[in-house]
Every structure is written in structure tokens, then in C-alpha cells.
From TrEMBL:
The active site is at 63 (proton acceptor), 129 (for ring-opening step), 131 (proton acceptor), 136 (for ring-opening step). This is Glucosamine-6-phosphate deaminase. SUPFAM superfamilies: NagB/RpiA/CoA transferase-like. HAMAP family: GlcN6P_deamin. Pathway: Amino-sugar metabolism; N-acetylneuraminate degradation; D-fructose 6-phosphate from N-acetylneuraminate: step 5/5. It catalyses: alpha-D-glucosamine 6-phosphate + H2O = beta-D-fructose 6-phosphate + NH4(+). GO terms for cellular component: cytoplasm. It holds the Pfam family Glucosamine_iso. Residues 17-218 form the Glucosamine/galactosamine-6-phosphate isomerase domain. GO terms for molecular function: glucosamine-6-phosphate deaminase activity; identical protein binding. Belongs to the glucosamine/galactosamine-6-phosphate isomerase family. NagB subfamily.
């Protein structure tokens, strides 16, 4: 893994922007795996302020809450439109439909979309418990898209975005670890000391389902963009 320690989210966003531009220079019709949460926001700000052109590209998001529609400002569809898609249009944007009546059919549909659009470059955040997407600790490493019961730790962590903890949805649809591992290139962002334990486990710990992000150690092209606080527990810097 290539670990890039940065002094700000702006600096991290600029590094990622260059990697996106390199990918688009190779293929304007690239497929990008996108993430929500606070971690990729610096990158989205840099992308919006830049001349990057996604009009021939496709995006596939990692996850969506069950039960929130696109008008709900906490849905991930709303987030993506607000932070990126309304300002930088793509040829096509895919997110799981958390309002689907038949969630199992939606899971199959999303797997088909991922199969038809292999991801060239995937961005990830990391949960305090080491989750990526909404693949919580204990998730099998070969799982594809699935409906997740969120852990109490994730509900508590994400409550900061809602009026109170009771408002946080209890389920989400998430791309699986099996699909994430097929991405040709991955960038993982981590900022702040609350991510330090997860980053230490991800980079230096054993590869274990207890820390889902540790599977990234098995992949050949992973860049971790993190600040000093998030890398403070690393033994080898
Ligand atoms: O970037 P944040 O807000 O700390 O969240 C980290 C991770 O948690 C999720 O938001 C899910 O809880 C992921 O999508 C994200 O990668």
C-alpha cells in the first residue's frame, strides 16, 4: 500500500484529483467507484473547482440507506448530487435504490450493474470500526451487494449527520467486499484521530474480517491518503 500523509483534506483532495485525471487521460469513459461520508468531501471540493470532465465517465456508489429517498438530505443520492453530480455531470450515475419495495431484487440488480461496469478507480472512506462501504466487521470477504443491519457503532458515528440517533436508518444496501476487491485501483481517505485505530488495523494489522479494510493489504494498487492524526498509531511511517 502506498501511504500518502497529508497536512489537510485539501492536499489529499488534490492528490486524488490528479489520480482521477490520469485515469481519464487513459480512458475518458472510465468507471469510478464513489463514496459518501465526510472523508471524500475534500476530493469532491477539488473536483468541482477543477476543469475535470466526467461527461463520458460512469460512477457507481458504494452504498445507500434503506428508507431514505433522494429528497432526504441525508440520503446518499442527495449527498452525491449536492457535492458532485449537479456540478460535474457524468454520462451515468448509479447508486443503490434504498426505496426499492423488493430489496433482494435491488441487490441483484446492483450486482448486475457492477458486473457490466468494472470499476477502474474506487474511492473509500473507513469507519471507526474498520468498515468500508457498509461492510461491517465480520462480513465475509467474498460477499457481493447485500442489505446490512448497521452496527451500534456505525449508527452512533453517523448520528452526527441527523437530528438524533433515532433518526439514523438501521439498514443500508452496500456494495460487497468481493466487488470492492475487484476494483483495478483504490484510494482510501482517512482524516482525524478517531480513524487512527482503524488505519493501523487496515495497514499493519493481520488481514482479518474483524477489520474489513485489512483486505486491502491483499490488493496491488491501493493508495491511502491520510493526515497525521489518522496515521498516528502506525509503527512504520
Ligand atoms: O467518512 P466518514 O463520514 O467518517 O465515514 C466513513 C465511512 O462510513 C460510511 O459513511 C458508512 O458509514 C462510509 O460510506 C464511509 O466510507
Amino acid at each position: 500500500m502506498d501511504v500518502r500523509i497529508v497536512s489537510s483534506e485539501e492536499e489529499g483532495g488534490k492528490i486524488a484529483l490528479e489520480m482521477f485525471k490520469d485515469q481519464l487521460a487513459k480512458n475518458p469513459a472510465s468507471v469510478f467507484g464513489l463514496a459518501t461520508g465526510s472523508s471524500p468531501e475534500g476530493f469532491y471540493r477539488e473536483a468541482v473547482a477543477s476543469d475535470i470532465d466526467f461527461t463520458k465517465a460512469t460512477s457507481i456508489n458504494l452504498d445507500e440507506y434503506v428508507g431514505l429517498d433522494e429528497n432526504n438530505d441525508q440520503s446518499y443520492r442527495y449527498f452525491m448530487k449536492d457535492r458532485l453530480f449537479d456540478k460535474k455531470p457524468f454520462k451515468k450515475n448509479y447508486l443503490p435504490n434504498g426505496m426499492a419495495d423488493d430489496l433482494e431484487a435491488e441487490v441483484k440488480n446492483y450486482d448486475e450493474i457492477i458486473r457490466e461496469n468494472p470499476i477502474d478507480l474506487q474511492i473509500l472512506g473507513i469507519g471507526r470500526n474498520g468498515h468500508i462501504g457498509f461492510n461491517e466487521p465480520g462480513t465475509p470477504t467474498d460477499i457481493t451487494t447485500h442489505v446490512v443491519d448497521l452496527t451500534p457503532s456505525t449508527i452512533e458515528a453517523n448520528a452526527r449527520f441527523f437530528a438524533n440517533e433515532d433518526e439514523v436508518p438501521r439498514q443500508a444496501i452496500s456494495m460487497g467486499l468481493g466487488s470492492i476487491q475487484k476494483s483495478k485501483k483504490i484510494i482510501l481517505f482517512a482524516y482525524g484521530e478517531e480513524k487512527a485505530k482503524a488505519i493501523q488495523g487496515c495497514i499493519e494489522g493481520p488481514v482479518t474480517t474483524h477489520v474489513p479494510a485489512s483486505i486491502l493489504q491483499n490488493l496491488s494498487d491501493v493508495t491511502v491518503i491520510a493526515d497525521n492524526a489518522a496515521t498516528s498509531l502506525l509503527k512504520n511511517k
